[in-house]
Amino acid sequence: MTSMTADFPAQGATEIGRALADTYSVAALADGGYLAGPDGQAVASQMREPQLREALLLGLCGGTNDVNAFYQRDEEPAEEWMTRRERTIAQYCAPCPVAAACLELALRYPEHARDLAVRGGATEEMQLTLGKADHERLAKARALDARPAEQRVERLRAAREVSRLTQSHIGLSVKPDVRQTNHTELKAALAHRERLQGEYRRVTGWAA
Fold first, then answer.
1. Which of 63, 135, 185, 193 is least surrounded, with the fewest CB atoms within 10 Å of its CB?
2. How large is the average pLDDT for residues 79-99?
3. How far apart are CA 141 and CA 12, in angstroms?
4. What whole-number distance in Å separates Cα of residue 140 and Cα of residue 134?
5. Other CB atoms within 10 Å distance of the CB of residue 198
């Protein structure tokens, strides 16, 4: 993969980011440099929460037990912490292949302000600023993250309707016009169920 988003206007970068996020695996995006650097934000913003969490498993910080490097210690002077976190950013975040995904997840699902830590190369102050500036997009992204769960409920409801229709108005004793109405309703219910299934697969990337 070669860079595709840097020279495009914001709308074009968003569309390309969505296409990349929908087409390639998280590992392939990380290997291609699409979850860090200039392309990272455009792609990570179009990823869903499970993809972002999968990306974290590829982060450089995953190989260290020094989790305190990303947090200010209790009663640690601010000046000392600022110096220490810059070392953390340089050591872990700057070369990290999934830094943009890490930051996107932190912005989309932020911790309480007092619990914020270095994420994706961004300081706590920077995360608060970015979260406020991009709150509308982040809210829409959270709604999309929740969509598969909502779709599951809709699919179960549609499946129950299909089951109900298949068990009603069955048998030769039922008048032909009633059977025909039932068949028509059943066909519509089946089509509705299949449409919901297709939408779910497109959202989750499940093509089975």
1. 63
2. 96
3. 18
4. 10
5. 10
* Terminal CA-CA length for the chain: 25
Q: List residues bridging with 119 in a β-sheet.
A: 122
Q: Which residues pair with 134 in a beta bridge?
A: none
**pLDDT for the residue 148:** 63
> Whole-model pTM?
0.69
How is residue 188 written in tokens?
């519509």
Task: Estimate the crossing angle of helix 135-166 against helix 124-133, to 10 degrees.
Answer: 60
Average confidence (pLDDT) over 119-124: 96
How far apart (Å, rounded) are the C-alpha atoms in residues 161 and 181? Answer: 15
| 3-state SS track over 114-178 | HHCCCECCECHHHHHHHHHHCHHHHHHHHHHHHHHHHHHHHHHHHHHHHHHHHCCCCCCCCCHHH
| Close Cβ partners of 189 (under 8 Å, ≥ 6 residues apart) | 158, 161, 162, 165
